[in-house]
Design a protein that fits this description.
Elements (H helix, E strand, L loop, with lengths): L11 H7 L3 H32 L5 H18 L5 H19 L10 H20 L5 H16 L3 H42 L3 H11 L6 H4 L6
Helix pairs in contact: 2-4, 2-7, 3-4, 6-7
Length: about 230
Amino acid sequence: MSQVSQVPQQHPVAAAIDAISSAQHETAKNCGRRWGKNKLEQFEIASDYARDMGTNPTIHVWEAMRIDWVNSYVDANPNNTGNASDAAWSEFAGYLDKLFSLTKPSEPKSKGAAKKREERAKKDQQLLAKYQGKSAADLKGMRSAALQKAAAGSDLAEKIAAELKKVLRVKTRDEDAEIAEERKALRKDVRTAAGKCTDLDKLRAALEILDDGTDLEFVTHETDED
């Protein structure tokens, strides 16, 4: 009996890709390249904006620069609707937050509010000093024990449990604030480094890492034609 040679079956995806014309290949490649460059340009624009805005802008600086940005966007896109400029700014502001932790500052607080904040901060520090040297795990264990005694009818244990709950909240908040400050400092360093960098490959690689879900590998090793 003669054997019939088996022809390897082509994967449907590969077949679909092979089915397109050379012009379609070039269009797809060109669009991918342009999309990557557009992402890089967005990063550079946001970096320039963030550098001149500064790391701790006041609400007045934020609003003044926002108005200039929106007005220029409208001038460049005269046919867009009024809502388009607001949507564009929201997208850009989100980019500033994502890359550089720049968000709209709060309105200035009154002197009375500032005094209350100082008083609360002082009380919080006194409370933390009372339990100095205790880790969050230690405090949770102490609170758990106090809650058991409180359930048995101890009023003192109930007060201690409530106090430990506040200590845990303050301690966690302060630790989160320290992490946020470190993150902010690192983002400032990244912004400074990006502003000085002239190597396109390095900028593309940095953007690929920072921009979740964006794959710029297809342009990382290509020579820029601009």
